Amino acid sequence: MEKNTTLRVGIIGAGPSGLTLAYALSKRANVHVTVFEKGHDHRKIPSYNPLRSYTIDITGHGARAVEYLNMKERFNKDLILFKGIRLPIINPKLEETYHGEGWTGSRGDIVKVIQEEIIEKTSGNVEIRFDTEANVKDADNGIISFGKDNKTESFDLIVGCDGAGSTVRNFLKATYKDFEVTSLDNDNYSMMLPFDKNTSELNPSYLYIFGMPPYLAVAGAINGKNGPTDPLWFCQIGYSGSRKFNSFEEAKSFLLKNYLSTGKNAITKYASDNAIEEFSKQENISTGRAKICSSFYRGKLVLLGDAASPFPPVGQGVNAAMEMAIILDGCIGEQLSKLNSSTKEEITSQAIKNFTLKWKPEADAIRTISFRGLNLRSFHPPLYGKLKTVWSVLLHKAFNRDPMTNAKRQDMSYSEALAYQKKVDLVLYSILGLTLCYTLFRVLK
């Protein structure tokens, strides 16, 4: 790379991973970033979609990225502080306190916060082009086509951050025979139920678990029109197999039957008949899908966030995406130190190879954790599935090794959380097996 030249990075997608990477790279000399986003400016559109606005908690891995970017002050000001999880499904007083720093909001809340920071803190080396659809034209030479006229620009590095349905990933699959994508699906779906009454009883700094698999229900708050002081509440209702309600009565009956907490219905307490009517008309959102890419990169192109490794939602999608972004930034930074001795192609090539080596084990681990934690396959009888999940959750919590909790920790990687989970599973099921054998022995004796 010749001295005093600029590394040009083109990012497709202005979601959490794309904007996190853009802001991280903006702090580096000799880097210019262009972000292409087919949607509108985040500041000019609603920050939530009532059909998809499940609450996202930025904890652990995401908090690591916030700290890396030195954005705590803005997150504290513009998002709801996260303090933990409450489990009225088991006991109204049962609480899992989160001891680190964390925040909650919708996806729109989060990207808007990062965008504001970019606008205020960067010195012009980040350009965000909203309302601009972009596609990869040539991965090997770093060429992007964009806009209605299909103009082209060349970049030293292209980063695909365009989500779970990534067109960038589809381009790689269609163009290169050795780039393979494996799809997984555990048949999970969900719909969003607005909470529009009695929400003053709920603390917006907590997520509330109102149902365990196979009928999961997680409620949380996002920013309202006046920000974090004016929270809106939504409950994500998850289940195995696609579901359709033919009437309000059928939907309400489903909620009354499956979401009881300490003898009372915990859902209809917070959702009015109008909210349930709206809920009954929704279409399923598929939440059980994952993809495994044979590689995260090709030529001058690398995939990031859900474009690289989407997995079922377990509170880690945005957290993982933000962490991926800072890891890639770190790998680029390490190679930029060789500014005087390497070409731009050598720098980006080595950076994305190093990134893949660091992140691939983590992507595999969190995907495994998500599938094990949300195993709602339809062949499990509902009672068996519920008892198995509750048994696993309670025993893991008793050993302080609940994998979902460990996945939120800032001081533990996903691969470490999975390793702990496997060890505790071995102990727990060994104890269960010995107990059953002893009981059988006593009965036969």
Summarize it.
The chain is an alpha+beta fold.
Account of the protein in words:
With 445 residues, the protein is α+β, with helices and mostly antiparallel strands. The chain folds into three domains: 199 residues, FAD/NAD(P)-binding domain (3-Layer(bba) Sandwich); 151 residues, 3-Layer(bba) Sandwich (FAD/NAD(P)-binding domain), CATH 3.50.50; 63 residues, no CATH class. It contains twelve helices and 23 strands. It has a seven-stranded mixed beta sheet. The protein has a six-stranded mixed beta sheet with strand order 8-2-1-12-23-22, sandwiched between helices. A three-stranded antiparallel beta sheet has the order 3-7-4. A hairpin with a 2-residue loop joins strand 18 and strand 19. Helix 2 crosses helix 8. The relative contact order is 0.15.
Shape descriptor: globular
- Quantity of strands, as a count: 23
Helix content: 25-40%
CATH class bucket of the largest domain: Alpha Beta
Secondary-structure arrangement, i.e. CATH architecture of the largest domain? 3-Layer(bba) Sandwich
The biggest beta sheet is recorded as: 7 strands, mixed
Q: How many individual domains? A: 3
Helices and strands, with pairings:
Elements: E1 7-12, H1 16-26, E2 31-36, E3 56-58, H2 60-69, H3 72-78, E4 80-81, E5 84-86, E6 95-97, E7 103-105, H4 107-121, E8 126-129, E9 134-138, E10 143-146, E11 151-154, E12 157-160, H5 167-175, E13 181-185, E14 188-195, E15 206-211, E16 215-224, E17 227-240, H6 248-258, E18 260-261, E19 264-265, H7 273-280, E20 285-286, E21 289-293, E22 297-298, E23 301-303, H8 317-336, H9 344-373, H10 382-398, H11 403-407, H12 414-444
Helix pairs in contact: 1-4, 1-8, 2-8, 6-7, 8-9, 9-12
